[in-house]
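Record format v2
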Amino acid sequence: MYTLAVTLSLLGTNGADPDGLDFFEKHIRPVLVERCYRCHNSTDQREAGLAVDHRAAIREGGDSGPAVVPGKPEESLLLSAIRDQDGLRMPKDDGRLSAEVVRDFADWIARGAPDPRDTPPTAEDLVRSLSWESLLQRRKKWWSFQPIVSVEPPAASGADASDHLVDRFIEAKIAAASLESAAPAGRREIVRRLSFVLTGLPPEPQLVEEFLADRTPESYERLVDRLLASPHFGERWARHWMDWFRYAESHGSEGDPEVPLAWRYRDYLIRALNADVPYDRLVREHIAGDLLAQPRTRDGLNESALGTGHFRFVQHGYAPTDILAERVRFTDDQIDVISKAFLGLTVSCARCHDHKFDPISQQDYYGLAGIFTSWLPAQVTLDTPERQDLHCAELSAMKGQLRERLAVVWEDAVDRLGATLLGTPVPPKIERPPPKTRKERKEARRRKENPDIPTGCSGALSEVWERGARSPLYAWVRLAAAAPGDRAQTWSEVAGEYRESRAGLERRAGTYARRWDLTGAAAAEWFRGGSGLRSGPSPSGDFHILAEGEQVVLNIYPAGIYTHLISNKHNGVLLSPRFQMGSDRVWIRALGGNYARTRYIMQNYPRTAGPIFDTEYLMADEFQWKEFRTKYWKGDDAHIELATSADFPVLKKRSGDRSWFGVTEIILGSEDDQPPREEPAQIVAPLFELAGDDPPANLEELAALYVESLRRAIRAWRTGEITDAQASYLGFFVKRRLLPNTLATLPEVEDLVALYRAREAQVPVPVRAPGLLPAGRMDHPLFVRGNHTQPRGVVPQRFLEVIDPTPYPPSTDGRLALARDLVRPDNPLTARVIVNRVWHHVFGGGIVATPDNFGHMGAKPTHPELLDALARRFVDDGWSLKRAIRMLVTSRTFRRSSVPSEAARHIDPENRLLSHMPVRRLEAEAIRDAMLAVSGQLEPKLFGPSIDGKTPRRSVYIEVRRNDLNPLMTTFDAPFPFSTTGRRTQTNLPAQSLALLNDPFVVGLADAWAARVLATAGAADGSDRVAWMYKTALGRPPSPRELERTLEFLESRSASSGEEATPEFAWQELAQAIFSFKEFIYVK
Amino acid sequence: MLCRTSTGFGALALAGLLPVSAGGKASSTPVDAARRFRARAKNVIFCYMQGGVSHVDSFDPKPRLDKEAGEPMPVKIERTMFNENGNIFPSPFEFRRYGESGIPVSSMFPHVATCADDLAIVRSMTTKANEHAQGNYAFHTGFPFIGHPSAGAWVSYGLGTENENLPGFVVLRSGDSPAPHGGVGMFGGGYLPSQHQASFIEADKKHAIANIFPAGSRRLQRERIDFIRSIDAGFIESLQAADPVEAAVRNYETAYAMQSEVPELCDLSGETHATKQLYGLDSPDEKTAAYARQCLLARRLVERGVRFVELTCLGGPNTWDQHGELEKRHGENAFWVDQPIAGLLKDLKSRGLLDETLVVWSGEFGRTPFHQGSDGRDHNPFGFSLWLAGGGVRGGTIHGATDEYGYRAIENPHTVYDLWATVLYLLGVDHVDLTYRYGGRDVRLTDVHGSVINEIIA
């Protein structure tokens, strides 16, 4: 080869070797420009005295001598440098030149180093050639960015040649290499191979026998269709997909908190693959399934929204103090996985600088980053609007009727309240000693946050000692306790307190840096999710009907946002707009029950952790101010969130299906501000407003004031004109049953309440899943050298410029736009990447050997035209994965034997031409599943929450907890869930042998299998049993020699000394030995 | 837990059993191509102090803390984990100078102090991680999250093994101590071929390695393996050329050989009473005795050619994390490891092994010079101390410094990348060359950072 090249180069000077010059332009110049010019040029950087930007300089060389000696590769220092010989090592930055490029340089030098560069480039030319625009134009020429071309497959040659698309491409190359394809595999081999590829399970012996018996020409296709239709197909291929999206059910780091309900994403994949949902559809659902105008639905649930679950499989740190760094990192994780999985590109390499090898700029990176940082990791509600609204209209109408009837009853009953008050002595004050023990302190705190609500007049009066002026009965107790002569004075005191409280309330509006009044227009800025927050703020006087028990009405509320006005099964997530934390304090006026919570979110971080990511439970059905100290976080992006118990992205406690909250006001302020407090005026106003300047002369008059103020509140409630204070005031009396509020005392509404409750029982519990909720659109700043403390400019959201640099208009949602761009017809990557992934899993290796990297550092396709033909066919076929798989497994190529010809072994030892079928080891999951299946222990149940490794279900269901990965899976090379894994490593380890020899789980399965052998083949003799075991495990009967050897082994076991020599023991030993057979874990 | 019991057979794998790349060409950079320096050390023993040892209470005395005890910190305090910062907290431990070098060591480590002239203390360490799990991952792998190879795995990958029957990277454990926060992933091999991930040896258990012993007798095991091999022979024949399968078959022999090597390793009956006493194996304190056993096993492992041995502190996943009760609990923790580590250094030295064995001692970060709560310290990633001893290290050295309060490294600040660059250098490997092609990049233990700390090299 070299001799020929050298001879050619001797023929003349530069220009006389047009092929050589062409070679230079194609293979040499781009590498020199990209990898060498920056440090070795004639303009501004001439390291080691060497420039390589024109012919004379490269031949003259630098301090160490000539870089290129035409015709003499071995004397050319440039070659030893890129070969990493003699202590030289170039290029210096990461990424060595590939062996292919090194070969190109050797060839080029050998053929005389033809080089048209007579003069050095001008400074301008140099800058231009090193500019991003110029790099982009050059790098765009990489094969994977070229449009998918339609190439007519090579004609099938020979009489019995296959006309199959795959075979025509594959056979042509085999023939061109003067090789022959291997013989067809045996039918037993084929059914085993096909069963593992399609379902990940060994074929049942009966299936094998049926296939062997079926001699019709269509028998194979029938087998393929049968296996493709198996529900186990989805389980098998979902696991591949989970590798692409580093499926995990916990976030790692300290605490390793779970991603709640992550398994719903896994089930979604299984269902989608079994139903053969088109791939382009699944891609769009992965990016924006929750936003699609026409989602797929199933049982009233938005199936498409489940696709976004993978956004949550990122790792999260525990209580990171540099919270922006945390956001940058987990966003990077999302970009990394999405770009590798769908595009086969390592976009994440462009976080700190333009990509070193591929046409991906740092601008590209931040264009994508903004799309993802516009969304918060969250739990989302899958229920369709119809399911969320189920029975709501009816229940709402019933509430209207109830309000009518209750108002009538209460108006009637309110007269009696005066007498009740007058007839009930004020209980003495109960002195509580200050809490001493830890238990007492805890109880005191609980009582403060979630006070016991008394029922009845005496209790309500007693409660005043704890609540003070926040009880409407405060005035009553004060006056009742005062001597009759002091009552006028006492009234003027309490009335004065009221006026002060009212003034405080009025002042509040103007006091603080920022205030959101969620009863009004400000509510529109907040995001509301969940079935309980379908409508905006409710007006004053709405109320909650209890779903069970003797009491009817839980409470009557002022205007605000509530999740439980129809049912407390309804859920809710309320999110503030993004704001920059500039305040020392956040105060939230809220109520709730059953572990509803509120928290502040810093830089999209979903966890609550330690004191710096605080959270407060909402456990009381009366408004309280929750305070967060946020001075620590000044300057970082923040949100405020309230949610029902199961609706936080990372859960702490949850309690059943019923949880609720209500909120009216959020305040941001400084530590010098007076903290807002629950003002008595917010509840007692009706009494004092009615009294006006006319103080009650005695208790009788005061009782009448209570009665009249309540009557007015009840009337206003009935007509919908009630004020916030009236609602709270009325709610106070109703809640304490000072007005009739039990089934026994409300015969007038008993039937209606029963109806309400019966219907409410049918309100569905919302179904949640991991996903995203809006954080507010942001275009991301570019971080200089990836340093998040150095933002510069803003990059509008957009796709990769190599496909389309047009920014997404602000009116378009970035995720929807990205979802479309990923599958747009002029994006050649998505289709190529997926057909290559399919090929990889069918044939044990891809046409592109690096399925996650179609860039410059990845492998080049062995059969580019075939890859394009498959990609084109795939798209034309409606992006059907099942059809693509069917296409591949019906080729003759797939059905060849694993035995290579002598010639193939020498000419193509890596089997790149696929002249025979590669032998491969089963994946960890398939090994475990095969042992379960063969031993008869496999429970075929599909779907549901994850299991631990000892549960006899398929391995796809084993829980993936980052800090506690299943050791059997990792021993057999299941990947760490941290990035896309399109190709698993495959190792041989003694640990694997030890597991199969001695692992208690494996031993247990062997025992079970032995018991099954003895039970089901009871009457048969030893040979029959052995044959059955071979057929079950290996899909074939034993050879005579194997049978003989196996019977010998059984014999030696039975003859073994000691108590081990039971009949079962020999069969257990055999069962376990078969699990250790290489043929058990390798597929031909 | 049936299945979980297989924890720990990890990857006992050996030279010669090369990974089979699933799709074509091997993706690793051949380590032989790495630039080699003169190797000063052959093995590494890593005494990891999970939880974060307080440097101002151990190897970095700060008199200023005594002078200004109880006063507010006069410098800006960065965000801390618990946001509960108090005032300056002087060390409750006393410092004295030791050896010819006069290196100050606190009363926490009276035994290690007697080895002062062998230690090279780096007082200017920094880390980016402020919490345990991320700190542990960052320290072991260079990255704060699961997925990247542990330093021991890199060393095993880079240098191979000198004992075919033992793994190249061993993590010793005693008692039922859970892994440090973050789990065993920090000892993982990441994307490296899995034979390089850690194998766990339970220092105090009969079954030192999970699944190492068959349920039945060795004879039965032998016969079963022979039977399996006879059937496998037919399979290999039917394939005609299937190297990976043949390699997999050989695994059974290696596994079998290990079954005698590991019990021999763990059998300490040949060690003299004096040796055991030196380490503290006879200590009435269970935890001291248990850690002593780890230290002695570490010596036996490096003697047998294991490249990288990591020891695990007893006392929980977060042993040194004293947000409160610092004096009492730091004192206890130190008591458990002090004599055993000193015993290890002395034993290695007397056997002439210290020259070729590099001992590394560190936690994931230091602790604040100011109070958290009444008697604890919060995490301090801005400055802390570690030390190295043995193989190629200049003993009796102090390198780098924190400010007068021990809050920030101000003189020659270093990162964990510098530590590993130095460790690799001492092992004869240029950290820049120890790469593995993953995700379209040549990834290294030192990411894109790292420079050798020349000042501590002999």
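The CA atoms of residues 327 and 605 of chain A lie 7 Å apart.
The mean pLDDT of chain A is 92.
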